[in-house]
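Lecture notes, continued. The same structure-token format from the folding unit now serves as the input rather than the output. Read the line below as a description of shape only.
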């Protein structure tokens, strides 16, 4: 990694990191997050369907998230249990999770079948759909919250103008955005 690859709060007036430490190597001057999280390497299927473009998120229980991919008949499908390939508790993402070969070796037909079954259960018209590609990502949750599925959203200023966001539930996003805007506005005064 070259020095120019790093992001520093000295180079920008404001830096807002909402990666939950997944990209902390790009911040040269500060360790972004000392907290321990459960990092989950996740897997989503991208599906071609005959259904009109749609999105769906079920927020409670064994939920599913379906996201339209542009203005096409493709959707991306994720399930919180079905999509998890591997878990790690710590203060950073394991380095090998950025290795495409390592990640691809974790994916198997069992994962794909489980996600597709979830899609069929929630969207019966998707039965004639076809998987066209796969996507991996990293989900971050607080460690040791399996019983309650609790998520705490917060904004911390780690250095002048360097904010880190911890928020892993979509319904917290408007509140977090408002907090960040207010903190930046107060710095502008």
């Amino acid at each position: 990694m070259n020095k120019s690859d790093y992001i520093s709060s000295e180079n920008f007036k404001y830096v807002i990191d909402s990666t939950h430490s997944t990209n902390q190597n790009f911040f040269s001057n500060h360790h972004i997050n000392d907290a321990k999280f459960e990092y989950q390497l996740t897997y989503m299927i991208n599906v071609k369907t005959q259904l009109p473009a749609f999105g769906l998120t079920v927020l409670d229980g064994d939920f599913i998230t379906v996201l339209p991919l542009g203005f096409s008949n493709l959707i991306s499908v994720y399930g919180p249990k079905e999509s998890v390939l591997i878990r790690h508790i710590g203060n950073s993402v394991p380095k090998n999770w950025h290795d495409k070969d390592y990640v691809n070796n974790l994916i198997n037909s069992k994962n794909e079948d489980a996600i597709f079954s979830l899609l069929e259960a929630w969207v019966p018209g998707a039965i004639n759909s076809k998987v066209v590609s796969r996507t991996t990502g990293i989900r971050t949750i607080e460690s040791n919250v399996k019983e309650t599925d609790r998520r705490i959203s917060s904004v911390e200023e780690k250095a002048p103008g360097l904010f880190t966001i911890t928020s892993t539930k979509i319904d917290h996003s408007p509140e977090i955005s408002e907090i960040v805007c207010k903190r930046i506005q107060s710095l502008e005064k």
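Point for the exam: Helices lie at 100-106, 109-122, 173-188.
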